[in-house]
Write a structure and sequence with these properties.
Blueprint: H1 27-49, H2 57-79, H3 82-116, H4 122-126, H5 140-171, H6 175-188, H7 192-207, H8 214-238, H9 242-250, H10 255-266, H11 268-282, H12 287-292, H13 311-320, H14 327-359
Helix pairs in contact: 1-2, 2-3, 3-14, 5-8, 5-13, 6-8, 7-8, 8-11, 9-10, 11-14, 13-14
Subcellular location: Cell membrane
Membrane topology: Multi-pass membrane protein
Pfam family, one: BPD_transp_1
Length: 365
């Protein structure tokens, strides 16, 4: 007689539930989104009742996050007990701190995009301000000037900064390396207007006080960009394991080739990120460019001659000349120029990440 085989017992589900003394998975995120919706509805009613009908996004996120902390602690206290409620309280406070830290960025993007769409049209990107009085015109001359001056700054700063970082990490020892490190640290804290005054004084001694060119703007921004590139690249190069260098030396590879074929490709992603941060640091500078490049309403493609307009200076001049019947037109152009500058920085960071991904060494082959 064949022995009967008992069917395996079905394993009971231990999924967290309210009856098991645990909140369901994803409760925290549902409470967070629900808190934002509730507070957003309240601010929406206030916006409808107000005269300007402006919705307060930052206030919604802030007070919604505060409500989320209180509600999550209360739910956990009722269902899970005091000990688990304390743990969830600390976790929700960490999440809230992260969200609150992002609020200035959210507010900045919300404000710039909301006001910058007013003149985000074809004429703004295809016309200059030459012979424009009042409404109309565009910022093509400022966009071109910003790209030319930033490109010139990169051509000066990236080779100098990267080679300096390589020297400090791979070759530098003794007083010379310590002196370079000291002066790089000092240059990091130089006010931007000092860089502009230094460049202007340098060129004025040779060409006279009336000189204003895009080249001067690139040199002034290079004074600000080089120390950032040096410090960021230096720290990234230090993260490359010495085992890789020693393995290359053991195979008889010279030091310069080891740096070129091992160290730099390994740290390429971090180097590109540091360079992008340095570009973002200088592309929005206004004070030095007001001194060394001046401002103009016409196109100028020549990097070495005549005044050249940039987006930061364009924003400043449009805001300062906002008066009379054309005041709103100038303010709209200023906001759209700020939005364009933000898009350029985002595009440069995206391109930098793509370059780092394409040229970084591929492992696991």
């Amino acid at each position: 007689m064949a022995a009967s085989v008992a069917a395996p017992a079905r394993v009971a589900s231990h999924a967290p539930s309210l009856t098991a003394g645990r909140l369901p998975r994803g409760t925290a995120w549902m409470v967070l989104v629900g808190s934002w919706i509730v507070v957003g509805a309240i601010f929406g009613l206030v916006a409808v009742a107000s005269s300007d009908h402006a919705f307060n996004l930052v206030g919604t996120l802030f007070f919604g996050t505060v409500l989320f902390v209180a509600l999550l602690w209360l739910l956990s206290r009722i269902v899970e007990g005091a000990r688990r409620a304390k743990d969830r309280l600390v976790t929700s406070l960490v999440i809230s701190a992260f969200i609150i830290a992002l609020l200035p960025l959210v507010s900045l993007v919300w404000t710039v995009v909301g006001n910058g769409l007013a003149r985000f049209d074809v004429p703004f990107f295809s016309e200059s301000m030459r012979n424009v009085v009042g409404a109309g015109g565009g910022a093509l001359h400022a966009i071109v000037g910003t790209l030319i001056i930033t490109l010139g700054t990169c051509l000066i700063s990236i080779p100098v900064g990267l080679l300096t970082a390589i020297y400090l990490v791979e070759y530098g020892h003794g007083r010379l390396a310590r002196g370079i490190t000291f002066f790089v640290d000092v240059m990091t804290g130089i006010p931007s207007i000092v860089a502009g005054l230094f460049t202007f004084a340098l060129f004025a001694l040779v060409f006279g006080p009336a000189i204003r060119t895009g080249l001067m703007g690139s040199i002034a921004l290079s004074v600000l960009m080089i120390p950032v590139v040096v410090r960021s690249c230096e720290e990234i190069l230090k993260l490359v394991p010495n085992d890789l260098r020693e393995a290359s030396y053991a195979l008889g590879v010279p030091k310069w080739r080891t740096i070129l074929r091992i160290v730099l490709p390994t740290s390429l992603a971090g180097i590109v990120t540091g360079i992008m941060l340095a570009i973002s640091r200088v592309i929005g500078e206004t004070a030095p460019l007001l001194i060394v490049t001046g401002f103009t309403f016409s196109m100028n493609y020549n990097w070495t001659e005549d005044r050249m307009m940039t987006l930061p200076v364009f924003i400043y001049t449009q805001y300062m000349q906002a008066a009379g019947t054309a005041a709103q037109a100038s303010v709209d152009r200023a906001w759209t120029a700020a939005f364009t500058l933000m898009l350029i920085v985002m595009a440069l960071n995206f391109i930098g990440r793509m370059i780092a991904r394409w040229f970084a060494p591929k492992y696991g082959r």
